[in-house]
């Protein structure tokens, strides 16, 4: 495994100025996800090769049914692949116990969802505190950190409100604050602007961009090519559960850097 | 740990009325238990007081017979005699024995007539009798030094609100007993017993003048040398009286009542009632527990998305289990708290009712240990009921759960 990592690093030289770091944070190696459905099998994702380096802004693009949600669940280690391996910080996630994985997930990945997914029974501040509680942080630390993060997303004045009392754009900013609670390396945003109008969506995107510039790795799942082109460094294009192409920013333009693969060879090797 | 309790509390605050309705079972069960124990102990005290159980060293002997409805000992066919009393007093386990007679007597005062129990005091053993019956004067004095023509009356009898005479009887007043004039020299301390609180104490000679007794004795009050000798004293008296009255064992026409025996009877009756209510309460708590299982299961299904979110942001299975487990426990606890409050209110109201009915002055027994136990119990019932739903919550697949 170590060998392979070195090879991969050689094969992807940093092209995008100083923004792309050296460290590989997430890698999917020949990952497939199949769901049984009756007698047949739905191949939601096949032979996905995916890697993200520290500090990158990566978009996973595709129409609905392209497998991007499945990809997002796998990247976020919410789900286990049917075939292939997922490495989080170089560690194979299938080697973790369920509960360790939850902890690792909570620590290394900050989730932002299309539908915000705040917990309605908890105040804005308590929502931001929750991921830290799962990591066993003391109440005082949590409280201080949550206030700090809410100040960052300019919502500290609303911290004692409940999610139902604030607007969608504000909820998504709370979700951003929550995603940062444990100071994760990676922010994983699933259609972060999908439920927002253009204007509030732009505000949310600005926050994500700012975080990326400050060094956070951002992975965004979206169906909106304009959004991907505007913010991402690397775009993975999915179609029908397969990787169609990978494009990389070069100044204002994107260049196709898709590595041609011999699918059949992998299939035989894995099955 | 504390964090999960707080989180569970927050979630409870947002629960709908349906969740609270499922608590009815726990609520009713705890109410029943707390009310019963509060009242039951009160009832026990009340019934015990009616039988005059006051000392662990005193017992009474009375002849058996047709006395079921009359004053104790008075309806017996073959009465005890003064010789019997003397013989009992000489037994080794016994310190002394005092004779007493009692009779329903006509009392007249303030131009009103009532009937009450006249009880005799032996002129040689006044103090001993007061001791065994635990009698003391609240006002005035007790009967001493052969004070003929004088009476001491029970506390309720002196009270114009309770005696049916529409007027307080004060020490120094004169009352008519069986049309004879007596001077009231003392009022007894309250005993909490319907009968004892309305007696009229007078010397044996006075009672003999009103109702001719001759040699007969209705009740023998006995003081045993020490509480441990109670059983031996009972046996000695029974052996003696069997011999004197020429009856076989098992066919006694007399009865030796020890406080233990009386309390035992009282307790066995109350115990049956208690057992019945406890069974009802248990069933109701079981139903309540099933209600909690139901509401928690529904809640887990309804909050799948929330569970998914918690898993996504790092909630371990154990942590999610804890949250639902505590939530369920707290749900039970809330039922227990409401039940304990209602149960306490019922036992207070019930005690007031008993007091009014039998003229006693009992206070409800509110036992912090019992209430604490009931609360702990309802928390445990809730938690146990929550185990399976909480396990279901913890086992949710994050991807599925996030989908809602």
Characterise the protein shown here.
The complex is a heterodimer of chains A (271) and B (404). By secondary structure, chain A is an alpha/beta fold. Chain A has one domain (2-270): P-loop containing nucleotide triphosphate hydrolases (Rossmann fold), CATH 3.40.50. Helix content of chain A is 36%, strand content 28%. Chain A has helices at 2-11, 68-75, 98-108, 124-134, 139-152, 168-179, 198-213, 225-231, 263-270, and strands at residues 24-37, 40-53, 57-61, 83-88, 91-92, 109-112, 186-190, 217-222, 234-239, 242-250, 253-256. In chain A, the strands form two sheets. Chain A has a seven-stranded mixed β-sheet, sandwiched between helices. Chain B is an alpha+beta fold. In chain B, strands 4-5-10-7-9-8 form a six-stranded mixed β-barrel. In chain B, helix 3 runs antiparallel to helix 12 and helix 11 (317-358) packs antiparallel against helix 12. The mean pLDDT of chain B is 83. The interface between A and B is medium-sized, with 30 and 23 residues.
Overview in brief:
The complex is a heterodimer of chains A (271) and B (404). Chain A has 271 residues and is α/β, with parallel strands linked by helices.
Give the helices and strands, then pairings:
The complex is a heterodimer of chains A (271) and B (404).
Chain A: H1 2-11, E1 24-37, E2 40-53, E3 57-61, H2 68-75, E4 83-88, E5 91-92, H3 98-108, E6 109-112, H4 124-134, H5 139-152, H6 168-179, E7 186-190, H7 198-213, E8 217-222, H8 225-231, E9 234-239, E10 242-250, E11 253-256, H9 263-270
Parallel strand pairs in A: 3-8, 3-9, 6-7, 7-8
Antiparallel strand pairs in A: 1-2, 1-4, 4-5, 9-10, 10-11
Chain B: H1 2-13, H2 17-21, H3 24-50, E1 58-63, E2 80-81, H4 82-89, E3 94-100, E4 102-109, E5 112-121, H5 126-133, E6 137-140, E7 150-153, H6 155-158, E8 174-177, E9 180-188, E10 199-203, H7 204-210, E11 216-217, E12 219-224, H8 230-245, E13 254-257, H9 259-302, H10 304-312, H11 317-358, H12 368-395, H13 398-403
Parallel strand pairs in B: 5-10, 7-9
Antiparallel strand pairs in B: 1-12, 1-13, 2-11, 3-12, 4-5, 4-8, 6-9, 7-10, 8-9
Helix pairs in contact in B: 1-11, 3-9, 3-11, 3-12, 9-11, 9-12, 11-12
């Amino acid at each position: 495994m170590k060998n392979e990592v070195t090879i991969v690093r050689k094969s992807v030289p940093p092209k995008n100025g100083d923004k792309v770091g050296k460290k590989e944070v997430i890698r999917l190696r020949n990952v497939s996800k199949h769901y049984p459905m009756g007698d047949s099998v739905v191949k939601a994702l096949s032979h996905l090769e995916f890697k993200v380096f520290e500090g990158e802004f990566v978009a996973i693009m595709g129409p609905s049914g392209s497998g991007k949600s499945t990809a997002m669940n796998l990247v976020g280690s919410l789900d286990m692949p049917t075939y292939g391996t997922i490495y989080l910080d170089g560690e194979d996630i299938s080697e973790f116990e369920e509960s360790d994985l939850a902890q690792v997930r909570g620590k290394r990945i900050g989730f932002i969802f299309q539908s915000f997914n705040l917990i309605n029974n908890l105040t804005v501040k308590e929502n931001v505190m929750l991921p830290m509680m799962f990591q066993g942080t003391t109440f005082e630390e949590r409280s201080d950190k949550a206030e700090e993060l809410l100040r960052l997303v300019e919502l500290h004045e609303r911290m004692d409100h409940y999610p139902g009392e604030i607007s969608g754009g504000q909820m998504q900013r709370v979700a951003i604050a929550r995603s940062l609670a444990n100071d994760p390396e990676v922010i994983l945003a699933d259609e972060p602007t999908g439920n927002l109008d253009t204007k509030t969506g732009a505000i949310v995107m600005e926050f994500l961009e700012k975080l990326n510039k400050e060094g956070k790795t951002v992975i965004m799942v979206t169906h909106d090519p304009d959004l991907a082109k505007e913010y991402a460094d690397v775009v993975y294009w999915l179609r029908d559960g397969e990787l169609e192409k990978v494009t990389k920013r070069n100044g204002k333009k994107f260049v196709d850097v898709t590595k041609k693969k011999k699918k059949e060879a992998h299939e035989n090797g894995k099955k | 740990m504390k964090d999960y309790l707080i989180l569970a509390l927050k979630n409870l605050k947002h629960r709908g009325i349906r969740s609270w309705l499922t608590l009815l079972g726990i609520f009713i069960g705890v109410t029943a238990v707390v009310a019963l124990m509060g009242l039951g102990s009160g009832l026990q005290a009340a019934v015990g007081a009616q039988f005059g159980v006051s000392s662990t060293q005193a017992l009474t002997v009375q002849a058996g017979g047709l006395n079921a409805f009359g004053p104790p000992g008075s309806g017996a066919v073959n009465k005890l005699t003064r010789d019997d009393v003397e013989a009992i007093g000489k037994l080794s386990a016994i310190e002394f024995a005092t004779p007493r007679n009692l009779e329903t007597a006509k009392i007249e005062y303030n131009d009103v007539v009532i009937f009450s129990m006249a009880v005799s005091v032996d002129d040689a053993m006044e103090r001993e009798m007061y001791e065994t019956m635990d009698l003391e004067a609240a006002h005035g004095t007790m009967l001493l030094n052969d004070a003929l023509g004088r009476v001491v009356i029970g506390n309720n009898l002196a009270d114009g609100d309770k005696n049916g005479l529409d007027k307080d009887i004060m020490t120094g007043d004169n009352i008519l007993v069986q049309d004879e004039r007596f001077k009231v020299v003392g009022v007894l301390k309250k005993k909490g017993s319907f009968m004892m609180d309305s007696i009229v104490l007078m010397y044996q000679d006075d009672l003999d003048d009103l109702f001719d007794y001759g040699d007969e004795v209705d009740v023998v009050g006995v003081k045993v040398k020490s509480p441990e000798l109670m059983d031996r004293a009972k046996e000695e008296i029974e052996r003696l009286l069997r011999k004197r009255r020429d009856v076989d064992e098992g066919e006694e026409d007399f009865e030796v009542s020890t406080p233990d025996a009386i309390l035992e009877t009282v307790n066995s009756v109350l115990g049956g009632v208690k057992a019945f209510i406890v069974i009802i309460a248990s069933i109701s708590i079981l139903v309540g527990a099933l209600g909690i299982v139901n509401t928690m299961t529904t809640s887990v299904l309804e909050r799948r998305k929330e569970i998914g979110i918690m898993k996504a942001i790092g909630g371990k299975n154990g942590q999610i289990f804890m949250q639902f487990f505590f939530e369920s426990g707290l749900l039970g606890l809330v039922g227990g708290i409401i039940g304990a409050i209602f149960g306490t209110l019922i036992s207070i109201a019930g005690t007031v009712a008993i007091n009014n009915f039998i003229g006693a002055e009992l206070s409800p027994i509110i036992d912090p240990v019992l209430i604490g136990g009931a609360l702990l119990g309802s928390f445990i019932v809730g938690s146990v009921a929550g185990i399976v739903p909480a396990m279901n919550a913890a086992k949710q697949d994050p991807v599925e759960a996030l989908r809602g």
